[in-house]
Amino acid sequence: YKPKHNGTAGRTEYRAKFKDEIARVIKVGGKAICFGWDSTGIGKTRGFELNRILLLCHGACHNDTIVTVETSI
Question: Higher model confidence: residue 47 or residue 7?
């Protein structure tokens, strides 16, 4: 993928910043649904509890998508 945001897209610090912002704006009891290639979601350290994990198969030679659903506690 071509880097965005001054070359930070995909880097650990960039991902941490947007997870921090998501945790800041979601109210207690609110849900975060994440789609990607890992199951880390927003995480316990940011005050979220993992509720569900779904592995979405696209078939043939396509990578699966991992979906996590978490609740802010």
Answer: 47
